[in-house]
Design goal:
Blueprint: E1 12-13, E2 19-20, E3 30-35, H1 41-48, E4 64-66, E5 72-74, E6 81-82, H2 96-99, E7 100-105, H3 115-132, E8 139-141, H4 142-145, H5 159-164, H6 188-195, H7 205-216, H8 226-238
Parallel strand pairs: 1-5, 3-7, 3-8, 4-7
Antiparallel strand pairs: 2-6, 4-5
Helix pairs in contact: 6-8
Length: 244
Amino acid sequence: MNRATPDAAGALWCPSANVGDRRGGALPDIIVLHFTAMATAEAALERLCDESPPEGLFPVSCHYLIAEDGRLWQLVPEARRAWHAGAGAWGDVEDVNSRSIGIELANPGDTPFAAPQMARLEALLGGIMQRWSIPPERVIGHSDMAPVRKVDPGPKFDWRRLALQGLSVWPEPGDVAGEDGAGEDGTFFSDLARFGYRHPEGVSEEALLAAFRMRFRPWATAAESPADRAVARALARRYPVLRG
């Protein structure tokens, strides 16, 4: 599908051929954030538009790519299905590509994200969330929906900054205190499931704990703790992924 006008103001239109229709008439209700883990934004752009990648690689795409200096490209129309999420799930959603908009951030994975890049992301997220009525708790990382395979956007990404602007979610100051029964033994993984983290066959509890901590407690180490359980309980109560 070729077009001259991107969905987001200020985006450069660079269409990728790696695109399809959303299955079953689905509409996007999740936003998935990634890092590129490539040397430059231009190299990532080339990869995301490559119809015939080298042997052993698969065609991929995303809806948006943001460079470190804030340049923004749109590769796939928001209404269509990009190939960015792969195998994984969030809550009851298993075909995440059909239900999501994917945003790639040019970053090697081990450095903080640049200020111009974050500012552009914040403006982009606000527009997407308004256009598709996506709530903050449905803005997730690739590692959230695919904890065994993926680690992006990684421990250097500032989720709290997004949450302060209503663009994602973050624990509140009192959540770690374990009030109102939070932090009890035996509840951690059921609370993660209520928030959205799936525990299907092949996904270990260790992988789920690592994904949860990378997003919400990247400084934490060692075994699951009462603080982990308290935060998971608060998130599950505040943002249950299966409402009603």
